[in-house]
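INTERNAL AUDIT FORM
Audit reference: QA-55
Scope: verify that the stored structure record matches its stored sequence.
Auditor: D.O.
Record contents follow.
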Amino acid sequence: MLSTAMSILHRITGMALVVGMIGLVWWLDAAATSDSYFALVQGFFYSWFGRLILFGMSWALIHHMLGGLRHFVWDTGHGFALNKVEWLVRANIIGSVVLTLLLWIIGYGVRP
């Protein structure tokens, strides 16, 4: 059951990453347009809402990446036993949360 939910979540995070690319393109466009426009976009991403979006996008990226590694393991013909499937799914969930938190803790630690 958890594996089925993770399959659906993997697809959702993939679509969220596609939509999130709009934010990256917006940021790059602002950087190429003018200093004032770039400051506006930076201000958005530095707001609490922008940071919430960036946090969600970083979690989606890490979660999707770990899900891809899980599928890679399965593509090699390993990890199909029910207990291993459940272990990999739980590792995907826990790993994505832990790595996202570590990324943000480190990011704030090196921020000037």
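Auditor finding: record pair retrieved intact. The two ends are 45 Å apart (CA to CA).
Action required: none
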